[in-house]
Design a protein that fits this description.
The protein is α+β, with helices and mostly antiparallel strands. It has one domain: Orthogonal Bundle (Arc Repressor Mutant, subunit A). The chain is built from four helices and two strands. The chain has a two-stranded antiparallel ribbon with strand order 1-2. The longest helix is centred in the C-terminal third of the chain and has 19 residues. It is elongated.
Length: about 110
């Protein structure tokens, strides 16, 4: 595996691919990120991140079947690899550990 450090956008895309399971392709990932995170992305940025994650060995891809609705064009479908799932597990464990270290005191935040 080529480097396991994830940027915030890479982590978001990796989580989205995992959550879409067998329906993860560029436009679906872009739409899901918009719906779940409220974050607008262009398709070129999504494809760049998907390719980068595949190069790191965190995703794998294969061509899906062609459909009439896409004018006979095929979709490139992405899935998590074992390494991708492990990186996500490590990331959530680290975030949870750090979050749990916040003292349980009454913060008086004012806006």
């Amino acid at each position: 595996m080529k480097g396991s450090h994830l940027g915030e956008l890479e982590e978001l895309v990796l989580l989205t691919v995992g959550s879409l399971y067998d329906e993860a392709y560029g436009v679906a990932v872009m739409d899901e990120i918009k719906e779940q995170a409220g974050r607008d992305m262009n398709i070129s940025a999504v494809h760049a991140v998907l390719r980068r994650l595949e190069e790191k060995g965190l995703l794998k891809s294969q061509m899906g079947g062609s459909t009439n609705e896409r004018g006979g064009r095929r979709k490139r479908l992405f899935t998590l690899t074992k390494a991708g799932k492990e990186v996500l597990d490590e990331s959530i464990a680290l975030r949870t550990s750090l979050y749990q270290r916040i003292p349980n005191i009454n913060y008086n935040f004012s806006s």
